[in-house]
Amino acid sequence: MSDVAVGWSEGAAEREARVEVIRAAWRSAYSHIFTRAEIDGIFDGTLEGHGSWVTARLAPAGTLAARRGGRLIGLASLGLLRTGDAELAAFYVLPEEQGRGVGRALWDRSIAEFRARSCARMQVWTLARAGACRFYEARGCTSFEEGSFTVAGHREPAVGYALVISDGPASTRLTSMSAR
Q1: Residue 31's domain is classified under what CATH number?
Q2: H-assigned helices in the chain
């Protein structure tokens, strides 16, 4: 794990690498949930996916990238919600890198970034049948709401998790969270 560096993604220059990490993670994590055609359709633009919670989003706050030897191996997209909570909007690690501390490094840095911006609570959503539920629960997240994610009419149950990340005042978190 010590050879994993977590920093801000390099924007447009890393777009294709970010998409490939997400595509590989989806194929691995969701192959028992969505068909290959549904997953491929999301990434080739022929199908759209929509989470019931997305309307709560206010603004993106940057994407963290985990790299080993300069290669992008994981990412965490940070955001703000209309409620003032922080959101871990996307969280993916290449399948071959899972179980090697990459997710933990991204998780810890994400929490630190939210705390630095005085966010008191973080939300993250995942499919109810995804293995990610265990990851979030092991880190102290608790389920607070049910929702759904739909791809081309295929509706899957989703679960929203929340984690209190600060005991401090939350009054400034909307103005202090800067978009990256």
Answers
A1: 3.40.630.30
A2: 15-29, 36-44, 102-116, 132-138, 173-176
> What string of DSSP letters covers 16-51?
HHHHHHHHHHHHHHSTTTS-HHHHHHHHHTSS-EEE
What's the total number of domains in the chain? 1
User: Which tens digit of pLDDT belongs to each residue from 101-137?
Assistant: 999 999 999 999 999 988 999 999 999 999 999 999 9
Q: Does residue 169 sit in helix, strand or coil?
A: coil
Q: Which domain holds residue 85?
A: 4-176
Query: Which pLDDT tens digit goes with each residue over 18-67?
Result: 999 999 999 999 999 999 999 999 999 999 999 999 999 999 999 999 99
DSSP 55: G
* Coil, strand or helix at 172: coil
Euclidean distance between CA atoms 2 and 26, whole angstroms? 26
pLDDT tens string 169-179: 443 333 333 33
